[in-house]
Each structure stands twice: as structure tokens, then as C-alpha cells.
Amino acid sequence: MQTKLFIGGEFVDALDGDTIDVIDPHDGSLIAAVAQAKEADVDRAVQAAAQAAPAWARMAAADRGRLLLRLADAIEAEAESLALLETRDTGHPIRDTRNLDVPRTAATFRYFGGMADKFQGSVVPVEAGFLDYVLPTPLGVVGQIVPWNFPVMFCSWKMGPALAAGNTVVLKPAELTPMSALRIGELIAEVGFPAGVVNIVPGYGATAGQRIVDHPGIAKVSFTGSTAVGMSVARGAAATLKQVHLELGGKGANIVFEDANLAAAVGGTAFGIFHNQGQACIAASRLIVHEAIAEEFLARFTALAASIRVGDPKDASTEMGPLTSTMHRDRVLSYVEVARAEGGEVLVGGGPPSDPALAGGCYVEPTVVRIDPSTRVACEEVFGPFMTVHTFRTDEEALQIANSVEYGLGGGLWTSNLSRAHRVARDLHAGMVWINSYKRVNPGSPFGGIGRSGYGREMGFEAMREYTESKAVWVNVDAQIPPFYPRG
Ligand code: NAD
Q1: pLDDT at 469 exceeding the cut of 90
Q2: What's the whole-number average pLDDT of the chain?
Q3: Is the CB of 145 under 6 A from ligand 1?
Q4: Residue 89 near ligand 1, beta carbon < 6 Å
């Protein structure tokens, strides 16, 4: 297990020797004491990244791509140990880290490895006699700040496009879950990335994170996390006119129409809200179901929710693990109290599981609450296995409820009516919409939100554009330009 900061191609202690205790959310045991980056460590990382930047930007794009492809191979070769590390650190069930998180991490690095030499500029037809070509130009050093809910995957979402486009990186993992990013750092060193191209600095937001936001040597900060911190990042970045990319919170609307395939909608909704204990920005946290099918849907859905196997995430049969920290578990449970106070009816769950074997962990049962859509719990992001239920009669009413929150990240709808499907997808206030499914992601498909869910996109060509500027170069081939001042 790597526990040191990754700076300039080496693993080093924090300058002041401080560490962060990383805790296993299953039983509260100590996984490791990890070096804690503070402002001066971030400065060292930025310096290393700045030194590495010119050569990395000039390297043939195919060679940058080849290193990313090698990294993807190395991740696959280490998949089992990486999955276990991620499971211990985050509480994600091992079946998910094995089948989703780690394979998706490799796939995303591979996608951007392949993209490196295919992302190209253009030639613009301008005045006669001129060649005007547009070069996608890397920004330089980019700062990347990620949360604790999908730490290994977010390494690839952030680093993949930034590196493919020719930038160097200073990445700060969340203080709660830094282990897999440090392991990725080891693999980056092993596959031969030049020193300083990637730097990984676990630390707290107020110190290491804030320094990334403030540092004048960083050209852009790409931030994934809560809306409140995202706003402070945008304000802070303004002082140095840094570019900002914000992937923030969500409150996903999941609309089930009366003509939906019920079995598919029940299963897809359960995945949408309960996968990763509901700790997903795109979680299907609001079920908006037509009143004609609401009772049947809820009977099937609550039975499924109650049957989900909650337990030790290292056990291959576990379907839901603990939340990532005690503090977060308490926050999620406090929302159950708010829901009760707001007149909500708890249909299933609502507390920690009764199994005494789980008493030492951060567990919360799958919870479903029927409540008015204007309440706090139906509008604020809970970020746990907590879904609210609302009913509707008309398509307009469904859309009105769906669009009544300030967030606009992911949303889904279930129907067999083709025209309704596209109409509602068009009118949903969201950056991503799934029709007859929920929460699909792919490295080629742009990922991001609108409104309080932030701006900018991860993945696809959009992500490459996030990490480049278009430089226009005008070449006078044989243009005859009449003098502007004829006397000259
Ligand atoms: P958070 O905002 O508390 O922390 C996110 C990261 O920001 C952490 O690394 C933290 O150390 C750092 N940070 C905290 N304060 C900072 C500051 N002042 N300056 C710079 N960095 C600072 O969020 P969290 O609780 O770790 O994660 C959960 C949130 O992330 C949820 O709101 C969730 O919706 C959001 N999220 C969004 C997406 C997306 O793609 N839109 C994906 C995953 C999670």
C-alpha cells in the first residue's frame, strides 16, 4: 500500500511530516496513515508539473497515448488488488469495484489513450491567400480535485483527457479515500510516464485543495464535489482568472409513466438509487411515478429494496456496503428524521440495519420515503440510499416536479411511447437523460450538468476541449494586401 505523496515522479513524505488516518468504513479500523499534503507540498507538486509541462506538450500525441494505453493495461493486470483496495477504502461492494469501477477506470484511460492522436485541429477558410489553422493547445498545469464516492474511476475521468491533450496534472484525492489514487500513481511511475507529468497530493480541502484553487501556476481547476464547495472554488479561481470546470451535486428525477415496462423500471430504479449506497451525483434520488401504477410499482420496489443484501463489502455476495464515513452516515440518517418531521411516510428502511455484525460500520438500510415534492428532503441532495417518491397524473405535472429543483445533472424516464420519450427527454432540466434505463456512463458520452450541478463536461471530445485552447495561426501564403496607409 502506497502512503506517500507522488511528486515529481517520486513518493515523498509531506514536508511537515503530517498524515491523515484513512479508515475502513466497514468496521472503523485503520487502513493506513497517509502523508497529508499542505500548501507547501502543493507548491512542490505544481513546480514539478510546470517543469514537466513543455516536454509533455511537445511529445508526439501518439506517444502520450501509448503511455495511457500502457496504464490501462497495468490497471487491468492489477485489477483484483485495486478493486479490493477501493472496496476497503470506500465501502463499495467488491462485486461493484471488480465489475464496474476498476474496469471502467481502465476503459476510460484506454479511451483517452486512443483519443490522444485523433483529437485534431482544423483549417478555416478565411481570406484568399491565407491559410488559417487552428491548433488545440494544452493549457499547461491543471489542478484536479475529486470527491470520495468513486475515487479510482475519477482518476481516469480527470487525468485521462488532461494528459491526452498534453497537460500536466496535480490531482488531489479526497482526504477520506486517497488509497487507490496513490496506487494509480505507482502504476503511472511503473509504465514510464516522465517525472512530474502526474502529481498526486492527498490532503484536506481547506489547505491542499484551496492552494490548488489559489496557485497562480495552475491554468485550470477541474473540481468534482458538492455545490457549496464548487461555488467557493469558482470564487477563489477568479482571483487568478483560472478556468474552472465544475461537476457538482444532483437530485436525479426518475419518471415512470403508466405505460412503462414495470419489471425493467423497478430493477433500473433500484440500480439508479442504491448502487454505491446512493452516493452518486447522478443517483435516481426522486421517483416520480404515475398514480395509476404507483401502488403496484411501490409494492414491487419496496420488496426489492428490503431484499438487498447489506453487509461486509469484501464479501462477494454483498449488494450494498457501508457509507464512506461515520459523519456521512449520520448526515444521511438525519435526513430520515427531517423527512418524518416534514410529514413523510417511510415505506422501507429508515435506519441502520439490525444485524449486530454491522454495528461497527457506517451502514444505512435502503430507504424509501413518500413525501411532498416541495419538502427539503425532496429538494436537497442526501447522497445516500434514500429515495423520495412523488406521484403525478399528466406528463406536464411529471416534468414540473422533475424540474422543480435547482440541480440539473442526470435524469431518467420509463415509457413505451416513443414520442413522449423524446419530448420529455428534451424538456428535462438535466445534462444527461436515460430513456428506459438509468445511470449509464461511457467514456465517449459527455458527462456533466446544468444549473447548480455545475458546468463543463467530462468524457468524450468535450473533455478534450475542456483541456485545450484553440490557437488560430494565420499564414500569408500569397495574399496581396493593399497597404492600409497608402503613403507607406
Ligand atoms: P466536497 O465538496 O466536500 O469535497 C470534494 C473535494 O473538494 C474533496 O477532495 C475535498 O477535500 C475538496 N475540498 C473541500 N473544500 C475545499 C476547498 N475549500 N477548496 C478546494 N477543495 C476543497 O464533496 P464530497 O462530500 O467529497 O463529495 C460529495 C459531493 O460530490 C456530492 O455533492 C456529489 O453530488 C458531488 N459529486 C459530483 C459529481 C459530478 O460529476 N457532478 C460526481 C461525484 C460527486
Answers
A1: yes
A2: 97
A3: yes
A4: no
